[in-house]
Specification:
Layout: H1 2-18, E1 27-34, E2 45-54, H2 62-70, E3 80-91, E4 109-120
Antiparallel strand pairs: 1-2, 2-3, 3-4
């Protein structure tokens, strides 16, 4: 499975680079992480998936301009844009053979989250 997944992942990355829009357009990013593909040095973190959209500057909402000016110190010459993301992270214990919770190990767990980023250049 690993030998099939790696070429598919590289195709996703290459297609993501090809989707980079002109400066007035948005851009999508997909991040896929899985400990089956690496050295398994991440302890209980098993996998994650995140999709992010970088909105063009012309679609920046008014509240984002206000926050960029108040918190980031942006001024009228700065480019202010937002990023919106949704993702998930999954965690497993070290011993995945037992269905019982082990007191000294991380439980099976996962979380779904959203992100809003405000950026000034």
């Amino acid at each position: 499975m690993r030998y099939v997944f790696l070429p598919l992942l590289s195709l996703l990355t290459a297609s993501n680079l090809a989707l980079a829009a002109p400066e007035d357009g948005g851009m999508w990013t997909l991040a896929v992480e899985n400990d089956a593909l690496g050295a398994k040095t991440d302890k209980n973190y098993t996998s994650g998936l995140k999709i992010l959209y970088r909105a063009p500057e012309r679609l920046t909402p008014d509240f984002a301009w206000g926050l960029a000016q108040g918190i980031l110190g942006a001024d009228a010459q700065d480019a202010v844009f937002t990023t919106w993301a949704i993702g998930q992270s999954i965690y497993t214990p070290d011993d995945t053979k037992t269905a019982l919770p082990l007191p000294d190990q991380h439980p099976y767990a996962g979380w779904l989250y959203g992100e809003l980023g405000i950026h000034a250049q």
